[in-house]
Specification:
single chain, 3 helices
């Protein structure tokens, strides 16, 4: 390659020498050896810009050259000895100026020297020199300092460029939660519009086999108003490209949040497969790497994405980033087009808050519609109620707690007829916190430390007492019904009486279990021929039976007496004059108060029978 370049250069020089000789001959013919323009000033040569992008067009301009003499010979060499440009240009016959244009290589070189010479008509030599450089494509990795707490983790990096930093982030500058995605950006410069590039990034997936930044997502997934264009001129239009799922992550059963790479000032054409420079898997210290291929539409494009903070929900207790001390959240720029990389940005563990949670469970025995009231404080806890009817209504979750202090939860008041019989609190992801309970007051006290998850279960048992129901039947008028012919019902304001409906029974009656301190009422179904003649005090109560107590309900029914109505009707259609009372009626075979009585026309005489039978 070097020999070919040397031969090419010698060939070019030879052609220039021939061209120079021809120019001298032509100049002698045209001008007869006389100069058409000369200047007492020294000749100059200068580039139109002091610095260029690789591949950009350079224009050299010169003044003070002799127009009636030879062409100006321009030699451009780079300091690395890679690129050489040799040009012979004509001199303007009016003002003695020269102009030369050419394109630089599309790769970075560094700096160039320019030497312009001209053989004058008098045999002398005019000389002028200058220098210029081509810019080195550059890339800088920043991460989002989204403001310290109490500013929410969803806000930040939206007001000035200083919020994007390339140093370590601590709690004084940032506040992230478990499962958030940290925004990153790479600002590039000195790229040529229309040129193609490849940039490679890397992130630490595990530290000592514990998951750190488990995968990558969109830059604004968590910090919703993050602006990667802050401090970057002309940064407005953008393109996106889907971030592929990491097969190691999905293969572990973790659902990777969807996301995109965003490129401001260019178009992403493809991304590579994932690679794992420290080996596949999650054992030990591991990292993942990916390359983004793109075409620049500006000299200073910006690439943005997010790094997801591993969660206990995905990887299990003790296996996520909460268990890593120090500064475990490392992301790197490996290279831009194979160079200029190895930039490492870290986020301190103290800047990431792992929320805690408090879960209250109501276990009511038996299940039912009873509502249990709770008081809870301080914020974000608040008063609530639970119903244990066999659904999720028996559970209250306070999640994403980020203030680690003492919290209290109390069941009060306990519903009528119920007793709090057990209260237990436990927690996972221990970080030095603790909990205690007071069954007598129904209070749980939780001293929460970061990342701990507490569960307190309140067990309430419906207290029951015995109600004895006696059905007494009096058959003193010939009735034949017994207590079992009557259907008895017990209704209670709390819980279900057991049994709630049953056939009546004479003393000692029927035992019914009902809720303590719950209002109740005993009723019976009607039976033809009998009248309820009495109920005892224990058959209803507005306050119920106190725990440990009992009551007896006696309901008495008497059979109704039979009635025999005797009508005496007299017809005097043949001159008779008797009336009904002239006749005496006598009832025999059954007992009545007045078995014999004067007759009476309708409605007749109502005889109440004190016995029943044939008459």
């Amino acid at each position: 390659m070097a020999r070919q370049l040397g031969r090419a250069r010698r060939g070019v020089r030879a052609r220039w020498l021939l061209a120079g000789l021809l120019a001298v001959v032509l100049a002698g013919v045209v001008f007869g050896g006389a100069s058409a323009f000369s200047s007492d000033a020294s000749p100059t040569i200068a580039s139109d810009l002091p610095d260029y992008n690789p591949g950009q067009t350079v224009t050299l301009n010169g003044t003070g050259w002799e127009s009636g003499s030879n062409q100006v010979h321009i030699v451009v060499n780079d300091t690395a000895g890679v690129a050489t440009f040799l040009h012979d240009v004509n001199v303007d016959v009016v003002n003695g100026t020269v102009t030369d244009s050419f394109s630089l290589p599309t790769y970075f070189v560094a700096s160039y020297t320019v030497t312009a010479t001209q053989q004058t008509s008098s045999g002398g030599t005019l000389t002028a020199t200058t220098t210029f450089t081509d810019a080195n494509p550059s890339a800088n990795l920043d991460q989002c300092a989204n403001d310290p707490a109490p500013s929410p983790s969803s806000d930040g990096c939206d007001t000035n460029a200083n919020q994007w930093v390339n140093g370590n982030l601590g709690a004084s500058k940032s506040f992230y939660l478990e499962g958030d995605s940290i925004p990153y950006r790479i600002g590039m410069d000195n790229l040529v519009s229309g040129s193609s590039h490849a940039i490679t990034i890397e992130w630490d997936t595990t530290k000592s086999s514990t998951h750190a930044l488990d995968y990558i997502t969109s830059y604004n997934r968590s910090v919703l108003d993050a602006n990667p264009c802050l401090g970057v001129s002309g940064c407005n239009t953008f393109s996106t490209f889907p971030i592929p799922a990491d097969p190691q992550v999905t293969g572990a059963g973790v659902t990777q949040a969807a996301g995109v790479f965003t490129l401001f000032g260019g178009t992403i054409t493809s991304v590579s497969a994932y690679s794992y420079p420290d080996g596949a898997g999650f054992t030990g210290d591991k990292s993942a790497r990916i390359t983004i291929n793109f075409t620049a539409s500006k000299t200073n494009p910006v690439l943005a994405w997010g790094g997801h903070i591993a969660t206990r929900k995905d990887w299990g207790s003790g296996n996520s980033a909460v268990a890593i001390p120090g500064s475990p959240y490392h992301t790197r720029l490996i290279d831009l087009d194979g160079s200029g990389g190895n930039q490492d940005r870290s986020l301190s563990a103290e800047a990431v808050v792992f929320p805690g949670s408090i879960t209250i469970i109501k276990d009511a025995q038996p299940n039912g519609p009873t509502s249990f009231q709770f008081t809870a404080s301080p914020s974000p806890l608040a008063n609530f109620s639970l119903v244990d009817d066999g659904t999720s209504a028996n559970t209250k979750l306070f999640s994403n707690i980020t203030t680690f202090q003492t919290y209290t939860v109390q069941e009060t008041p306990i519903p009528t007829g119920w007793a709090l019989t057990n209260l237990v609190c436990s927690h996972t992801d221990d970080n030095g916190g603790s909990s205690s309970t007071n069954l007598g007051t129904g209070t749980s006290t939780i001293n929460m430390a970061e990342g701990e998850n507490y569960t307190c279960t309140y067990t309430n048992v419906l207290q029951r007492v015995t109600l004895t129901v006696i059905k007494h039947v009096i058959n003193d008028n010939g009735g034949t019904k017994t207590a079992g012919d009557f259907t008895m019902s017990v209704n209670s304001a709390t819980g279900s009486p057991n049994p709630a409906s049953f056939g009546g029974a004479e003393s000692p009656g029927t035992s019914v279990s009902i809720a303590a301190n719950a209002p109740y009422n005993v009723t019976e179904g009607a039976v033809t021929g009998y009248t309820q003649t009495g109920t005892s005090a224990g058959c209803s109560s507005a306050t119920g039976i106190p725990p440990g107590g009992s009551a007896t309900c006696t309901i008495t029914n008497d059979d109704n007496a039979a009635h025999l109505i005797v009508i005496k009707h007299v017809v005097n259609n043949n001159g008779g004059s008797k009336v009904a009372s002239d006749f005496t009626t006598t009832i025999s075979g059954v007992s009545t108060a007045n078995p014999s009585a004067p007759g009476a026309e309708a409605p007749g005489v109502d005889n109440t029978l004190t016995s029943v039978g044939a008459y």
